[in-house]
Amino acid sequence: VGRMVEAWEFENLSFDRDRFDPDLLDELLRTTSESVRVKGDRVVISHVYTERQVYPLNLYLREMSTEKAVAAAIDWGWAIKDLAAANVFPGDLFTKNFGVTRHGNVVFYDYDELTLLEECRFRTIPQSDDPADEMRSEPWFSIEPGDVFPEQFRTFMAFPRDVDHEVRRSFDEVHSDLYTPAFWQEVQASLARSDLPDFFPYVEDVRFRRRPSGALG
Description:
217 residues, Transferase(Phosphotransferase), domain 1, 18% strand
């Protein structure tokens, strides 16, 4: 659905030596000598995975204008929802695990906690009659493998502290349903019905357009 960064595997990938800063090359040769070597005027990497270059979302939100940060934050929510609709639950929802492409759309690039959405059980945190339960370091209720509590997402999806409050407000205005079990359960129900939506990973003004038959120019 255009929301995950692909990785490509290469063997014996070579670059011109002058493309490397001398200090960087020295560090690579010192710390990764088993896979990096210099051959004449070429630097050869015996085994490497490459990914599309993206701007880490946590840095993007801090370093860009409020307008761009708001757009990226809202698209972050759509990225999570698009992945969910494709039966993918990212697991790690931290902003540092997402990036912004040169087209401005948000993609996910940390696959350590990926799981199928249909294998998750989205629950509401039980209410306790004992105030002391709120202070416990461990949950007072039972948790089974696959249990997910969307009410906790607001903590995991925290914005950097120095990000304009307008960014968080705009995100919550559009995507506060991500914090509810009902949203995720409805997506699961749609998947069970094989009811898949259309995905548009690019904003409308950069999409290909179908021209009317016979149209010129």
